[in-house]
Amino acid sequence: MVTPPDQFVAASRQRCARRRRGLVALLLALLLSAAVVTLTLGRSYVPITDVLRLLLGGEVPGATFTVEVLRLPRTVLSILAGLSFGLGGVAFQIMLRNPLASPDIIGISSGASAAAVFAIVGLSLTGPVVSILAVLAGLAVAMLIYGLAVRNGEAGTRLILVGIGVSAMLQSLISYVLLNAPAWNRQEAIRWLSGSVNGARLDEALPLLTTFIVFGLLLLSRSRELETLRLGDDMAAALGTPVSRSRIVIIISAVSIIAVATAVTGPIAFVAFLAGPIAARIVGANGSLLLPSSLVGAVLVLVADFAGQFLLPARYPVGVVTGVLGAPYLIYLIIRVNRTGRAL
After folding, report:
1. How remote is the C-alpha of 22 from its chain's centroid?
2. Which has the closest alpha carbon to 51: 43, 306, 41?
3. What is the rounded (10 degree) CA torsion for 334, 276, 197, 207?
4. 247 by DSSP, 3-state: which?
5. What confidence score (pLDDT) does residue 1 get?
6. pLDDT tens-digit profile of 194-213?
7. What whole-number distance in Å separates Cα of residue 165 and Cα of residue 91?
C-alpha cells in the first residue's frame, strides 16, 4: 500500500517530468521555427509552401537555387554542428562538474584547429583530408590532456588546468603558422578558424550526421552514468558506476562529435561552452542536460548565423557572432564560480 508521503513524492516527480518534457518540446519547436526562418527569409523571401514543395522533390522557378543550393545545406550543417557542439560540450561540463570544462576552453577544439591550419597552410591540403587530420588531432590532444591530468584514476580540476595550458600552447602554434603563411593560404586558414558555414554543401553533412548518430546516441545512453559522475567519483563508484571506463567512453564520444563538427565548420566559438548553462537555466539542473543542451546548441548556431548574415551592418561568420556572445558570459561565469564554487 502506498503511503501518503510516497504518493506525494511520486506526484511531484511526475509534475517535474511533465514540465521537463514540455520545456524540451518547446526547445524543439524553437529549433524548427529557427530552421523555417533560415529557409524562408534572407535577401529574398520564399514562402514556406514553396520550401516544402522543394523539400519534397518539386520544382519552384526562381527559388530552387536559393533554397536547395544556398539555404538548405547551410541550415542542415548549422543544425548538425550545433547539436554536436552542444552535446559534446555539456558532456564534459557534467563529467568534470565544472561549467568551464567545455572542449573549446580546455584545448580539444584548439587541437583540431592547429592540425587543420597546418594542413591548409603548411601542406596546401583541402577538403576531406583536412577534416580527417583535424579529427585525429582532436582525439590525440584529448588523450594527451587526459593522460597528463589523471592521477590514481581521478582528473577533476587538474584536467581543466592541463587543458588550458595545452590550449595556450596550441594557440601559439597556430599564430606562428599563420604569421609565416603565404597570403592566400593565410586567408583560407583565417576563414576556417573563424567558424563558418559559408559555402556549405549537403555532402559535408553526411560524416557529421553519421558521427552524431553513432557517438551522440552512445553519449545519450550514458546519461545515467554522467548523472552519477556529477556527484563525484567516490559517490559514483559507490552507486556502481565504473568511473574510469565510463569517463574514457564519454571522452572519446564527446571528442569525436566535437572534432568532426570542428573539422567541417571550423571552431564555432563558445557554442559548446554556452549550451549547457543555458539549458540548465531553461529546464533546470536536475535531470539529464544532454538532449536540452544539444537543442540549445543547434538554436544558437542557427540564430547566430542568420544574425551574422542579415541582421548586422556587415556580414560576419557565425563564429564571430557566437564569440561576441560567449566572451562576456565566460567572464561572468569565471567570477561566479570563483565566488560560489557553483557548477552545473
Report:
1. 23
2. 41
3. 130
4. helix
5. 47
6. 888 988 888 888 888 999 99
7. 21
Question: Both ends of the chain: CA-CA distance in Å?
Answer: 37
**Please, which pLDDT band fits residue 99 given cuts at 50, 70 and 90?**
confident
More confidently predicted of 232 and 153? 232
Instruction: Write down the residue that cell numbers 582525439 correspond to.
Output: 139
Q: Are 162 and 149 in contact (CB under 8 A)?
A: yes
The DSSP secondary structure of 187-223, one letter per residue, reads HHHHHHHT---TT--HHHHHHHHHHIIIIIHHHHHTH
Q: Say if residue 153's pLDDT is above 80.
A: no
pLDDT band at 36 (very low <50, low <70, confident <90, very high): very high
Angle between helices 108-117 and 243-265 (to 10 degrees): 40
pLDDT at 322 over 50: yes
In the DSSP assignment, the letter for residue 69 is I
For the entire predicted model, the pTM comes to 0.89
302-305: Cβ within 8 A, 24+ apart: 302/31, 302/34, 302/35, 302/38, 302/75, 302/78, 302/79, 302/82, 303/34, 305/38, 305/74, 305/78, 305/197
- Give the integer Cα–Cα distance in Å for 122 and 65: 35
